[in-house]
Amino acid sequence: MILALAGGVGGAKLANGLARVVDTGGLVIAVNTGDDFRHLGLHISPDLDTVMYNLAGQNNSEIGWGLAGETWNFMTALGWLGGPDWFKLGDKDLATHIERTRRMVAGETLSEVTAALCARFGVAHKVVPMSDEIVTTLVRTKDRWLPFQEYFVALRCEPEVSEFRFSGVDLAKSSPGLRAALESNVLRGIVICPSNPFVSIDPILAIADVRSLITAREVPVVAVSPIVGGRAIKGPTLKMMIELGIDPSAFGVARHYGSILDGFIIDHIDMSMSQDIETLGIQVIAADVVMKNVSDQERLAGVTLEFLDKIRERR
């Protein structure tokens, strides 16, 4: 079994590639929920939905999030009424949030709701939240701490970042699905998708039992770089690295993950960094890590699994 850690568009793409080359029972995708928040009285889970919509083949590939063929009548009406329309919810996407909230208010956990929604969308592979407890990503700027979605969407990542905090993580534990995968005696390896390391993967690794279980397992952990040629494939990763004083490169990402990694996949354009990364005790290969279509997702998934198995065989 493969365990993938994912969040955001880049994570969803590789997760979809893995789902297309790994049997249904052989993959668990654990998704960041630090981005989750309450909006208009609804429980919004942006990363869970992005992964689910991608695996269902219903994602909006033009904007990277939401559902294909979306309409925006609700948002238009809400704006006309003077309501908060800064976080865009499409008409079809809105139904997902309403149904999630309805179920959670009735007593279901986020894990249970996620399983039910994935089943309705025809997603066969197991998608689980990182935790059923609330963990909230906060962003420290020069002026104040901001909830992540206010920073990311409302302010379009414009404020300078100096720190991230995951409120509630001290009390959180891994979701049942994530813990079962980490404890499984058939766990083949762990793949860290090319997600933003700071706001998509770090919240998952910040859960105490997640990191301890990964450290204790004798299985390879392989990450795919979200930085190619000094640029972020998607989103504000590079801007964050510069503002945090981290080397804005694939090497900087590898050093950030550090000893948790056994292998790191960089793009061919970054091959000059391979030796520096290997000095960290991390094995490196180069591949085309930019995923422009589903074929690219499948190809990169195959490369990742082959690399993971080679590391496994060397042990």
List the helices and strands and how they pair.
Layout: E1 2-6, H1 8-21, E2 27-31, E3 37-39, E4 42-44, H2 46-56, H3 73-80, H4 91-105, H5 110-120, E5 126-129, E6 136-140, E7 145-147, H6 148-154, E8 163-167, H7 176-183, E9 189-192, H8 197-205, H9 208-216, E10 221-224, E11 227-228, E12 231-232, H10 237-244, H11 250-257, E13 263-267, H12 274-278, E14 283-287, H13 294-314
Parallel strand pairs: 1-2, 1-9, 2-5, 9-10, 10-13, 13-14
Antiparallel strand pairs: 3-4, 6-7, 6-8, 11-12
Helix pairs in contact: 1-2, 1-13, 4-5, 7-9
Task: Provide structural commentary.
With 315 residues, the protein is α/β, with parallel strands linked by helices. It has a single domain (2-314), classed as Rossmann fold (3-Layer(aba) Sandwich), CATH 3.40.50.10680. The chain is 43% helix and 17% strand. It has helices at residues 8-21, 46-56, 73-80, 91-105, 110-120, 148-154, 176-183, 197-205, 208-216, 237-244, 250-257, 274-278, 294-314, and strands at 2-6, 27-31, 37-39, 42-44, 126-129, 136-140, 145-147, 163-167, 189-192, 221-224, 227-228, 231-232, 263-267, 283-287. The protein has a 7-stranded parallel beta sheet with strand order 5-2-1-9-10-13-14, with helices on both faces. The longest helix has 21 residues, at 294-314. The two termini are 18 Å apart. The mean pLDDT is 96.
